[in-house]
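Student: Please help interpret what follows.
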Amino acid sequence: MSLNVLILGAGGQIARVATELFLKTSDAHLTLYLRQAQRLGRANTDRVRVVEGDVLDLPALTAAMADQDVVYANLDGPLEQLARNIVAAMRETAVRRVIFVSSMGIYREVPGEHYRSILDPYRDGAAVIEASGLDYTIIRPAWLNNRDEVAYGTTQKGEAFKAKDETVSRKSVAHLIIKLATTPGLEIGSSLGVHREDN
């Protein structure tokens, strides 16, 4: 049976790369959820369903969540409230697995970098996911680039972030997301820093 994956914030740059990788490397069926569906154009496969909606609209989100196996959220904005709605919709629909993209620096784990208020929404959103009791993995990528490469390493929460001055490719982050989504039990309850590293 193929995997059903709900991608929240599907118009974002990492999400677009992840969508392409999911279709190339897995048999997953994707529901692409975003505020402006026209940003994606027409899906050219029956494995993709596009839903126009806002994560802040809990009834619409809950409807899109039905029959999903994995939720992958790549959002910006009021992340604490967005995370609360994701958790509420997942509980309502009995979906357990969530992959939530945040930012490096939310735990003051980047050597030499001081905590900045710009990270507050990312920290607060991650805290909601961590307290949810769901099968979560949080991803905290370094600054991003568009290189066509998969070259990354990860650190766990509590470890210093590595290679903080190097950018990591969106393709690398997408590769990790697909691996997490398609490997049962992988890194459940983890918060992973993602840095560039030659493999």
About this structure: The CA atoms of residues 143 and 180 lie 20 Å apart. The chain has five helices and ten strands.
